[in-house]
Amino acid sequence: MATIVLYHINTREVAIGIELAAFIAQLKSAEKKAFPKTEALDFDVELKKRNTNLIAMVGISPKAFVPASSLLVSYLLYTHFHGTILLHKLCTVERYQREGHARHLLTILRDRTLNQGFKTIQLWVDEKRLAARSLYESMGYSEVHRVMNYYGPDRTGIKMA
């Protein structure tokens, strides 16, 4: 089973009392809206894998009467192998974009994995996703390789580390 760590959007501390099934439904919905069908992850499969890890930011619905009514803000999913972290997915729900949540999740990922002894974080990004590339570059990632048609016809993938 995957490791899932949720942080509250306001306090930036670990969130507890979240209804997991509802949260996963929000993940699936956000994934479908943000990525082409060919790139969308199947969270029912991914979250069953032992070396899969999910870090997410959540908020509490203003209409909620109980803390379990969470709102997905941003998430990242990564795996690890041979001392390397592979960032599979980073996504911020559209209405929360440009507020620093993705940057905060990348910082959490870096800090958590360095403390666990991992040396490298790698990721792939579509050449045309300029905002994502800019974020990664501002966090110290740089291009190490390009693959033409990685994401499909005329969609070059850039490997960064």
What is the fold's blueprint, element by element?
Blueprint: E1 3-8, H1 20-34, H2 43-46, E2 52-60, E3 70-81, E4 84-92, H3 101-115, E5 120-126, H4 130-138, E6 143-152, E7 155-160
Parallel strand pairs: 1-2, 4-5
Antiparallel strand pairs: 2-3, 3-4, 5-7, 6-7
Sequence stretches where pLDDT stays below 50 over 5 or more residues? 64-68
Structural category is alpha/beta
- The average pLDDT is 87
| Count of helix runs | 4
Radius of gyration: 16 Å
Name the overall outline: globular
DSSP strand content: 35-45%
How far apart, in Å, are the first and last alpha carbons? Answer: 27 Å
Extended strand count = 7
> Widest sheet: strand order?
1-2-3-4-5-7-6
Sheet with most strands? 7 strands, mixed
- Topology as a string of helices (H) and strands (E): EHHEEEHEHEE
Helix coverage percent: 25-40%
List its salient traits.
alpha/beta, 7 strands, globular
Structural description of this entry:
The chain has 161 residues and is of the alpha/beta class. The protein has helices at residues 20-34, 43-46, 101-115, 130-138, and strands spanning 3-8, 52-60, 70-81, 84-92, 120-126, 143-152, 155-160. Strands 1-2-3-4-5-7-6 form a 7-stranded mixed β-sheet, sandwiched between helices. The longest helix is centred in the N-terminal third of the chain and has 15 residues, at 20-34. The relative contact order is 0.14.
